[in-house]
Structure formats: structure tokens, C-alpha cells
Design a protein that fits this description.
The protein is an alpha+beta fold. The chain has 2 helices and 8 strands; from the N terminus they run ααββββββββ.
Length: about 140
């Protein structure tokens, strides 16, 4: 099962658990399931970042726009600006956080072929439905 499908299945199980029982224990269990799904998404994103070979830290080259809803997902425009003298590819880990700073989701985005001195954008799309005010932040960016 892919991380996205696993996360979706866990979130659906949490929703079903809440629908079947209104007790606090069920709500706590559902919260634990969602928390586990978030941790799984973050772990999968980190694993993808670790697969990049010969990448250099380029967090300062990348910025995140304000998240918006796109159907049942949250998206944010991510822009990489290449300060070097040759074209580069970027692999970017984006964290979606709530208003309190809690991690809601983590995704990895590739922005390929950014020309020297130019900017190029891509869209980071959440793995699952996120509710409430959401902020996108660049957790890690590698130029390669």
C-alpha cells in the first residue's frame, strides 16, 4: 500500500470510528490515528528527500505561497529561484501546518530545469483533506 493510500485509509478509519461512537475515548483514538497518519506522511517525505544524491541545501532559494483549497486537497505554489550559473533541479519538502504550528501533512515536490537566474514554480498538493487555516513552509530544499 502506498503512503498516500495508507494515510487515506487511516483517516477514513478515524472518521468511521468517530461516526460510530461519540465517546471521548473514541475521539482520542481517532486523534491518535490521524497523528500516526501525519507522522507516516512526514516519514515518507523525509525518505524521498534522502533519495536525492549530490543535492546541496537550497532552502534559501525556495519560497511557499499561501495555501488554498483545490477540491478536497490543499495546495500551495512553491517557487524556486536559481542563483547559480547553470540550470538546476530542485527537490523540496513542504510541510502543511495549522494555525498553532502543528504538522498536518508533508509532501515532496520536484521543480526541474530551473534556468540560471530564473524562477520556476510548482504546486505542492496535500496527501489528504486538511481543515482550518493552513500554512505551507519549506522544511528542506535540495538543488541538484
Amino acid at each position: 500500500m502506498t503512503p498516500t493510500r495508507r494515510t487515506t485509509a487511516i483517516a477514513l478509519a478515524a472518521a468511521a470510528l468517530l461516526a460510530l461512537s461519540g465517546c471521548d475515548a473514541a475521539k482520542d483514538a481517532a486523534g491518535d490515528i490521524v497523528s500516526s497518519a501525519t507522522a507516516a506522511a512526514a516519514s515518507a517525505a523525509e525518505q524521498k528527500m534522502n533519495e536525492v544524491k549530490d543535492g546541496v541545501n537550497a532552502t534559501g532559494d525556495v519560497s511557499a505561497g499561501t495555501p488554498t483549497a483545490d477540491g478536497d486537497r490543499t495546495v500551495a505554489e512553491i517557487t524556486a529561484t536559481n542563483p547559480k550559473d547553470k540550470a538546476a533541479d530542485y527537490t523540496v519538502m513542504v510541510n502543511f501546518r495549522d494555525a498553532d504550528g502543528n504538522l498536518l501533512d508533508a509532501v515532496v515536490l520536484n521543480i526541474d530545469g530551473v534556468e540560471p537566474g530564473k524562477s520556476k514554480s510548482g504546486t505542492a498538493r496535500s496527501n489528504r483533506t486538511l481543515t482550518g487555516a493552513t500554512k505551507a513552509e519549506i522544511s528542506q530544499a535540495l538543488r541538484h
